[in-house]
Amino acid sequence: MEKRVYEYESKEKGNIQKVIDTDPYADRSFSKQGYNIKEGKGVGGEGDKSYIYINAEPEFFQWAEEKFKEAEIQTFKRTSKKLEDKVIKAIEEEENAAESGFGAIFG
Q: Is the domain covering 2-106 a CATH 3.30.70 domain?
């Protein structure tokens, strides 16, 4: 599995969501891979941007990038490596904290 982060201007959220929500039951879909969308300030990024974190097999990314390209989302691109690492860390810390809290409730 590989982790990547893409960025886009927040005003494009509706267009991004259309791509993500398309055919959720297909063999290859965002819903089956899992993804996480965060606003820029929440993960140490730019305030007017949102970020989509995807953890998937490498061939999924080629397919996903093509879907966003077909949708003509002008501001969609992969983030810089430095920012990508920062966003991944923030999301993973948030997920770990949620798992710990859940474990404390039911553990």
A: yes
pLDDT score recorded for residue 100: 63
Q: What is the pLDDT of residue 34?
A: 83
Among 33, 86, 31, 87, CA closest to 55: 33
CA angle 28, 32, 36 (to 5 degrees): 115
Residue 50 in contact with residue 39, Cβ under 8 Å? yes
Regions of the chain with pLDDT less than 70: 99-107
Whole-number Cα distances in Å, 88 to 12, 13, 27, 36: 21, 20, 25, 10
d(CA 78, CA 6): 4
pLDDT at residue 107 in the model: 54
Q: Which helix (H) or strand (E) is 38 found in, with range?
A: strand 35-39
The CA distance from 43 to 93, in Å, is 10
